[in-house]
Design brief:
The chain is mostly helical. Helix content is about 75%, strand content about 0%. Pfam families: ATP-synt_G.
């Protein structure tokens, strides 16, 4: 346990040295590359205004998303009604999607249990 703690400390020290050496350079490069997204003047008031714009824009997009959801659901219902017309490719995509959802669920459960497979935590 003590050796792992020592290894962790040395890795953290190396990472902090790297950040101290290259952090400012990376920060300046990032700002130059993304200059078009920076609002002038960069004040707290401008940040508050932008956050409100984002919030209310997202709020205004809900009806469109709601409508899209129901259209998608209707198309799924139509596919279920016409099961005989479903192509093998469509069924394969649906099966892969279901498997992916199940895998993400399993991964979430494992993470939620502290990365243990049985739930027993030592």
């Amino acid at each position: 346990m003590a050796s792992k703690l020592h290894q962790l400390r040395s890795k953290v020290a190396q990472a902090s040295q790297f950040v101290a050496k290259h952090g400012c350079e990376y920060y300046k490069q990032l700002l130059v590359e993304n200059q078009q997204y920076i609002q002038q003047p960069p004040t707290v008031e401008k940040c508050n205004e932008l956050s409100k714009q984002l919030f209310y824009t997202r709020l205004a997009s809900i009806p469109g998303r709601y409508e899209s959801f129901w259209k998608e659901l209707d198309s799924v219902k139509q596919m279920c009604k016409n099961r005989g017309d479903i192509k093998v490719e469509d069924a394969g995509v649906a099966a892969l999607f279901g498997i992916e959802l199940f895998a993400w669920f399993c991964a979430g459960e494992i993470v939620g249990r502290g990365f243990t497979l049985t739930g027993y935590h030592v």
